[in-house]
Amino acid sequence: MLRTWERAKLATTLDHIVVATDDERIAECCRGFGSDVVMTSESCRNGTERCHEALQKLDKKYDVVVNIQGDEPLIEPEIIDGIVRSLQLAPDAVFSTAVTSLKPEDAFDPNRVKCVVDNQGYAIYFSRGLIPYSKSGKVNPQFPYMLHLGIQSYDAKFLKIYPELQPTPLQLEEDLEQLKVLENGYKMKVIKVDHEAHGVDVPEDVEKIENLMREQNLS
């Protein structure tokens, strides 16, 4: 969490950085290194709902809210700034996020969420399965598959609406909060970035991240 917070502080578009959590142990740790913390309820079903609750508890009003997952310690500040600016420049979108190239070895990993976009840069669909899926059942080495990164920004007005929307079939089937946005007809802007995705999804990822941070002198 500390490393993710430090990376977020380097972004130029963020006015205020807070950690939203329902775990007092995480909160105590974050206060220890100087972060503002907002305690949220255990009933939040995903990060978007947690961001909504945190926003309601903050005194200041914001136009854009960014959800940076705590398990992305190598997130680039430029990506944070990129999704904020892309949302600001797309008045018909209520949500923005980022994708990068999918590695062939991650093609069938359900923890690596895939994304397809239209030719205007708006999301069409997200899936834990490989999309698009070749009828051969194999990964096409020539196709530019895209991996969703664990970061997204929302128009603050839409963030208030999101919890009021009923769960949707695709959202429930894939367990992906972004799909509720798309199923309800809202637009989501997607930027493509060149980034090595190193989220912490399983215990084995921790050692990989620590080794990479040592290589990059970030530890």
Automatic annotation (TrEMBL):
Broad EC category: transferase
Q: Which GO terms describe its biological process?
A: carbohydrate derivative biosynthetic process; small molecule metabolic process
This protein's pathway = Nucleotide-sugar biosynthesis; CMP-3-deoxy-D-manno-octulosonate biosynthesis; CMP-3-deoxy-D-manno-octulosonate from 3-deoxy-D-manno-octulosonate and CTP: step 1/1
Catalysed conversion reaction? 3-deoxy-alpha-D-manno-oct-2-ulosonate + CTP = CMP-3-deoxy-beta-D-manno-octulosonate + diphosphate
Molecular function via GO: 3-deoxy-manno-octulosonate cytidylyltransferase activity
Location in the cell: Membrane
Q: Which UniProt keywords apply?
A: Nucleotidyltransferase, Transferase
- Tell me which InterPro entries the record gives: Cytidylyl_trans, KdsB, Nucleotide-diphossugar_trans
Gene3D superfamilies (alphabetical):
Spore Coat Polysaccharide Biosynthesis Protein SpsA, Chain A
- The EC designation for this entry is 2.7.7.38
Claim: Manganese is one of the keywords in the record = no
Keyword set includes Nucleotidyltransferase: yes
Family indicated by similarity: Belongs to the KdsB family.
Q: What is this protein called?
A: 3-deoxy-manno-octulosonate cytidylyltransferase
Q: Which organism is it from?
A: Salix purpurea (Purple osier willow)
Lineage, broadest ranks: Eukaryota, Viridiplantae, Streptophyta, Embryophyta, Tracheophyta
